[in-house]
Specification:
- By secondary structure, this protein is of the alpha/beta class.
- The protein has three domains: about 5-25 and about 40-130 and about 255-430, Rossmann fold; about 130-245, Domain 2, N(10)-formyltetrahydrofolate synthetase (2-Layer Sandwich), CATH 3.30.1510; about 445-530, Formyltetrahydrofolate synthetase, domain 3 (Roll), CATH 3.10.410.
- Strands 1, 2, 3, 4, 5, 6, 14, 15, 16, 17, 18 and 19 form a twelve-stranded mixed beta sheet that branches. It has a four-stranded mixed beta sheet with strand order 20-22-23-21. It has a three-stranded antiparallel beta sheet with strand order 7-12-13.
- About 55% of the residues are buried.
- The model has no long low-confidence stretch (mean pLDDT about 95).
Length: about 550
C-alpha cells in the first residue's frame, strides 16, 4: 500500500473550528483573533490576565545531531502532545514557525509528519499569520532609518565602516550576503558595504521570542546596537528613534498563534529563530501562555541537543524563569547507523553493529542533558525498515546510562503510537526529580562561558579565539554585558565545527571566527567555524517542484 504524503494526510484532516480548540484550553471566543477558520492569535489582554495561575509541567523534545536520514523531532513533539491527550491529560504543544528559506530550499516544512502533524500545514509553511513579514518589515525599517540618518548629516557621527545592522529577507539568497549599498550618486547617499541575513537570524526575531510583553519588546528593540562611532562607542536603535515604530509593526506578531494537531489538540506555533545561528526555541510568551492553560506542555528546540537544548536551558529558561520537568531525546535507528559509518543508500539493510557504533552520539547527548538536572527518556522514532535487533541495541545502550528508550510509532499511528512514552513523561514530570540549573553562572566571564559550553557540551579540548576577539569580549564585560549568556552559532551536524565529523568526536578545538553583541535580545552570539547567517539554495531547490494542481491545491510542499 502506497503511503500518503504528509500534505495528502494534512489535506484529509478533519479540522475543528479554532474557537473549539480555544474552548478546550478555556480561551473565550472574544480573546481569539481568528485568521480564517483554522488559526487564530491569542489576545494580549487575555494573556495578561493569566499571570496568577499556576504553571503546568514543561517537557522539552530534543534530538541527536541531525543526519540526512532524518530524526523526526517535530513529529515526536506533535505526537507526544497527542499521546498525552490520548491518555487523558490536558496537554498542548509549542513549536516554532517555519522559515520560507528552508521550505523552498532543502529542509522542507516544520509542521511534523505522517499522522503527527499540525494543521493547516500549507498555511504554516507559507505566510501563516504574517509574523515573519512583520519581523522583516520592522528590521528593514531600522535599516532604512540608519542610512537615512547618515544621509541627513549623520548627527550621531556613525562610522560608515562600522554599521553592524544588516538587512534581512526570509529567503535563502547567497547573492545578498555581501553587497554594496547607496551607489548612484549624491541623491542615494554614501556608498558603503552592506549585506543581508535570513529573517530568522535577525535580532528582532530573537527579541520577539524572548520578550515578555510589548513594553519589554520596545525596550529590548531600543537596546540593540546598530553601529559604532570612530571612537568605537556604540550607537543604539533608540538613538535612531526607531523602536516605537518597530513595536507598532510587531504589535500583532507578538501574540501567539493557536492551531491544532491532526487529532484536534491545541498547538501554539510562534516565533522561529534557527538553532544553529540563533537560540532555536519558540517564543517565551507562547510557552508561558500554554503553561498557564494546560497541565502538560511539550515544546521543542532546534537541531541536536548540543545546540537547541543547550540554548533552551542556558538562554530561554534562564531568561524566562522556566523550569523544565522532563526531556525527550529523539533518535532513529537510521541515524544511529549513519553515525556508525553507514552510507545513506545502505540504511535499509540490518546492521546491528553500526547501530551500536553510532550510539556514542546519543550517549553524549544523554550525559549532557543530565548536566542540566532534568530527567530524560529516549524516544526512538520508528521507521518501517527498523529491525527488532537494531531497536534492542539502542535500548540496551541507553539502559547502561540509566535511561529508558521507548519505540514510538506516532508517524504511522498518531497519538496512540506514543502512549508508552507519554506515560513515562508523566511519571518523570510527577516524580519531582527535575532540579534544573543552567550550565554556567551569569557571573562567569564571557570567554569562560564559551569555554564551558565547548568543553562540557561539545567535549572539545578548548577554544581557539584570537586576541582581538578576547579583547572584544573584555570590552563588553566592562560595558556591563558580562552577565549575558552566550549563543553559539555552529554547524548542527556535529559536536565539532566540522559537519563531516559524526558520532562522538574527541581531540578537536572550537575555532571562534567572530562575536556579536545582541544587547537587545540579551546574549552574545559566538560564530564558530564556517557557519552562515544567510544560507544558499541547493542545486535543485524544493521550489522547483512546488506548484498548484488542477484542483487549486498546493503540491510539492512537504
Amino acid at each position: 500500500m502506497a503511503h500518503k504524503s504528509d500534505i495528502e494526510i494534512a489535506r484529509a484532516a478533519t479540522k475543528k473550528p479554532i474557537q473549539e480548540i480555544g474552548d478546550r484550553l478555556g480561551i473565550p471566543g472574544a480573546a481569539l483573533l481568528p485568521y480564517g477558520h483554522d488559526k487564530a492569535k491569542v489576545g494580549q489582554s487575555f494573556i495578561d490576565g493569566l499571570a496568577d495561575r499556576p504553571d503546568g509541567k514543561l517537557i522539552l523534545v530534543t534530538a541527536i545531531n541531525p543526519t540526512p536520514a532524518g530524526e523526526g523531532k517535530t513529529t515526536t513533539t506533535v505526537g507526544l502532545g497527542d499521546g498525552l491527550n490520548a491518555i487523558g491529560k490536558k496537554a498542548a504543544i509549542c513549536i516554532r514557525e517555519a522559515s520560507l528559506g528552508p521550505n523552498f530550499g532543502m529542509k522542507g516544512g516544520a509542521a511534523g509528519g505522517g499522522y503527527a502533524q499540525v494543521v493547516p500545514m500549507e498555511d504554516m509553511n507559507l505566510h501563516f499569520t504574517g509574523d515573519f513579514h512583520a519581523i522583516t518589515s520592522a528590521h528593514n525599517l531600522l535599516s532604512a532609518m540608519i542610512d537615512n540618518h547618515i544621509y541627513w548629516g549623520n548627527a550621531l557621527e556613525i562610522d560608515l565602516r562600522r554599521v553592524v545592522w544588516k538587512r534581512v529577507i526570509d529567503m535563502n539568497d547567497r547573492a545578498l550576503r555581501q553587497i554594496t549599498a547607496s551607489l548612484g550618486g549624491v541623491a542615494n547617499g554614501f556608498p558603503r558595504e552592506a549585506g543581508f541575513d535570513i529573517t530568522v537570524a535577525s535580532e528582532v526575531m530573537a527579541i520577539l521570542c524572548l520578550a515578555r510583553d510589548l513594553k519589554d519588546l520596545e525596550a529590548r528593540l531600543g537596546a540593540m546596537i546598530v553601529a559604532y562611532r570612530r571612537d568605537r562607542s556604540p550607537v543604539y536603535c533608540r538613538d535612531i528613534g526607531a523602536e516605537g515604530a518597530m513595536t507598532v509593526l510587531l504589535k500583532d506578531a507578538m501574540q501567539p498563534n493557536l492551531v491544532q494537531t491532526l487529532e484536534n489538540n491545541p498547538a501554539f506555533v510562534h516565533g522561529g529563530p534557527f538553532a544553529n545561528i540563533a537560540h532555536g526555541c519558540n517564543s517565551v510568551i507562547a510557552t508561558q501562555t500554554a503553561l498557564k492553560l494546560a497541565d502538560y506542555v511539550v515544546t521543542e528546540a532546534g537541531f541536536g541537543a548540543d545546540l537547541g537544548a543547550e540554548k533552551f536551558m542556558d538562554i530561554k529558561c534562564r531568561k524566562a524563569g522556566l523550569h523544565p520537568d522532563a526531556v525527550v531525546i529523539v533518535a532513529t535507528v537510521r541515524a544511529m547507523k549513519m553515525n556508525g559509518g553507514v552510507a545513506k543508500a545502505d540504511l535499509g539493510s540490518e546492521n546491528v553493529q553500526a547501530v551500536k557504533d553510532g550510539c556514542a552520539n546519543l550517549g553524549r547527548h544523554i550525559e549532557n542533558m543530565k548536566k542540566f538536572g532534568v530527567p530524560a527518556v529516549v524516544g526512538i522514532n520508528h521507521f518501517v525498515t527498523d529491525t527488532d535487533a537494531e531497536v534492542e541495541a539502542i535500548r540496551d545502550f541507553c539502559a547502561t546510562l540509566g535511561v529508558e528508550a521507548i519505540l514510538n510509532t506516532h508517524w504511522a499511528d498518531g497519538g496512540k503510537g506514543i502512549e508508552e512514552t507519554a506515560r513515562k513523561v508523566v511519571e518523570l514530570c510527577d516524580s519531582g526529580a527535575a532540579n534544573y540549573a543552567p550550565l554556567y553562572a551569569d557571573s562567569l566571564g564571557l570567554a569562560q562561558k564559551v569555554e564551558t559550553v565547548a568543553r562540557e557540551i561539545y567535549r572539545a579540548d578548548g577554544v581557539v579565539m584570537d586576541s582581538k576577539i578576547r579583547a572584544q569580549l573584555a570590552d563588553w564585560e566592562e560595558q556591563g554585558y558580562g552577565d549575558l549568556p552566550v549563543c553559539m552559532a555552529k554547524t548542527q551536524y556535529s559536536f565539532s565545527t566540522d559537519p563531516g565529523l559524526r558520532g562522538a568526536p574527541t581531540g578537536f578545538t572550537i575555532p571562534v571566527r567572530e562575536v556579536r553583541l545582541s544587547a537587545g535580545a540579551g546574549f552574545v552570539v559566538v560564530v564558530c567555524g564556517e557557519i552562515m547567517t544567510m544560507p544558499g539554495l541547493p542545486s535543485a531547490p524544493a521550489a522547483q517542484s512546488i506548484r498548484l494542481n488542477e484542483a487549486g491545491e498546493i503540491e510539492g510542499l512537504f
